[in-house]
Design goal:
The complex is a heterodimer. Chain A is of the alpha+beta class. Chain A contains three helices and 21 strands. Helices cover 17% and strands 47% of the residues of chain A. Chain A is globular, with a radius of gyration of 22 Å. The chains are: A alpha+beta, B mainly alpha. Chains A and B meet through helix 1, strand 1, strand 2, strand 3 and strand 4 of A and helix 1, helix 3, helix 7, helix 8 and helix 9 of B.
Chain lengths: 325, 177
């Protein structure tokens, strides 16, 4: 018993001595993440990537254009029913041909999203994850540096990223479950970095006609200070609120609320809307690669979703209370 | 330690590790809370109706209904066949171990009354692989929520536009069109 205790002490002592080296290794790996986040915003590129998650396995084409007018990008799914996502700066349009629907989401100005600013990117990552450099290897014909991001607790998932050593662009990314399995993987199979890129390439295909389509457009207004109607009693460790907004989805309905929480990497959205007349399903669900937790809160329906384990959604969702005025 | 609780639920611990995990559960309120949360999630995924009831309360209720006699029986005088029985028991034991080892999936074997309330199938705590798909009526609404979520996530910064595939790769079918 005493020997085991001594061994433990030696181990702890050894780790303390190693600490500066470990910290240095983490800082080095963090620089790669920083670089990747800047490259994703600043570089123009066009390429083909494969997305795999559960039984989804699809190939898509993406074009990202950066010029004086800002950022624009178009993602076109090449398999199955035609679907596209076009983003011009802060406005995202999703075209779903099967249901003849366009969903339009407008992100309010970058100012309300400190986590989106390159300068503060990484806030929280070091506290919540262990970031390490892995091996060098080739992805899509490019030399890459692997970065492993391991969660420090069970409230978040791990990641494995491969960054192009030359451009800094992320060319492959996997989110890793608690058993080491890949929950979802994005991987470029072909990538051309740099221009020139024709602006025409950003326009949605002609078949995405929208005259007789359903247009789902929500109007969001920033509500950072909150009106105090809802309180968050128990935030899961490491998560902080990065935005709060009022969200109007229908002109004839009262607005709902949308908050986003992040631990620096993973993100959780909380939506609170007036519950409809139909009885709402509650419990745990899956929307593609994301987990969802739905709960009734008096006359409101709460939807919590994100790329985190269900236990994190539950902790966040169960900690929300309506404040009496 | 919470990872031990999770592994315990999934039946991934060796017998001695399980013993330590149970001891920790007994002594630490935090761990018991985690256990309860995992149980609730597991129950929700299996669509069981006794959600939210605290584990301890349920175990106590089950114990009240099922009285187990813990006192050992007095040894019998004619015990000449006991060595034979012991031998037969060990053969049977090996057979059972072999059968358990070769038949997948392995169910966690919990000690005593806990086995009654512990899930007999591996619970996916972190991955809701067995979670229900969203009902048709709620799908359109869920797709809108998903688009709103994806438009606002900070990870977009590193993953770039590729992360928007999540919005359109679910389709209206909840899980998959």
């Amino acid at each position: 018993m005493r020997r085991a205790h001594a061994a433990r002490l030696m181990l702890v002592g050894g780790l303390c001595l190693l600490h500066p080296f470990l910290a240095h290794a983490q800082a080095d790996a963090m620089q790669w993440l920083q670089r990747a986040s800047q490259a994703a915003k600043r570089l123009s590129y066009t390429g083909t990537f494969v997305y795999q998650s559960g039984n989804i396995n699809e190939t898509s084409r993406i074009t990202h254009l950066v010029d004086a007018a800002g950022e624009a990008e178009r993602l076109e799914v090449l398999d199955g029913s035609p679907r596209e996502v076009v983003r011009i700066n802060d406005e995202v349009q999703c075209f779903l041909s099967e249901t003849r629907t366009v969903i339009v989401e407008r992100r309010s100005g970058g100012r309300s999203f400190p986590a989106l600013l390159p300068a503060s990117f990484g806030g929280g990552i070091g506290e919540n994850y262990v970031v390490k450099k892995g091996a060098a290897g080739r992805v899509a014909g490019l030399e890459t540096q692997a970065i492993s991001i391991e969660p420090r607790d069970e409230l978040r998932y791990g990641h494995q990223w491969w960054v192009d050593t030359q451009s800094g662009l992320l060319v492959k990314a996997s989110r890793i479950g608690e058993r080491g399995e890949a929950l979802e993987t994005f991987a470029f199979t072909e990538l051309r970095i740099g221009g020139p890129i024709d602006r025409e390439a950003i326009k949605p295909a002609a078949r995405m006609k929208t005259q007789d389509w359903r247009v789902q457009q929500s109007v969001t207004t920033e509500n950072k200070a909150d009106d105090g109607t809802w309180s968050f009693r128990a935030l899961p460790a490491g998560f902080r609120k990065i935005s709060g907004m009022k969200r109007q989805t229908r002109a004839d309905a009262p607005p709902g609320m949308h908050w986003v929480f992040s631990d620096g990497l993973a993100a959780v959205s909380v939506f609170i809307d007036p519950a409809g007349d139909a009885p709402a399903e509650t419990g745990f669900f899956k929307m593609g690669a994301l987990n969802v937790y739905k709960r009734l809160l008096g006359e409101h329906l709460m939807v919590v979703m994100g790329d985190v384990p269900p236990v994190t959604l539950k902790r966040l969702g169960d900690g929300i209370e309506g404040r009496r005025k | 330690m919470k990872s031990d609780v999770s592994a315990l639920l999934d039946g991934e611990l060796e017998a001695h590790e399980a013993k330590a995990a149970f001891a920790a559960l007994r002594d630490e309120g935090d761990l018991r809370r985690a256990w309860d949360e995992y149980q609730t999630i597991g129950a929700a995924l299996r669509h069981e109706d006794r959600l939210g009831a605290c584990l301890a309360t349920r175990v106590m209720a089950d114990l009240a209904h099922d009285v187990t006699v813990l006192a050992p029986r007095a040894p019998r005088a004619d015990a000449w066949h006991r060595p034979l029985l012991a031998l037969a028991a060990s053969v049977a034991g090996v057979a059972v171990v072999g059968w358990v080892a070769f038949s997948a999936p392995v169910s966690p074997v919990g000690p005593g009354p806990l086995a009654k309330v512990a899930p007999t199938q591996p619970t996916a705590i972190a991955s809701v692989a067995t979670a229900a798909t969203v009902a048709p009526g709620a799908r359109r609404e869920m797709q809108d929520y998903l688009a709103a979520h994806q438009a606002h996530v900070p990870a977009a910064q590193v993953l770039g536009g590729t992360q928007h595939i999540r919005t359109v790769s679910v389709g209206v079918g909840g899980e998959r069109r």
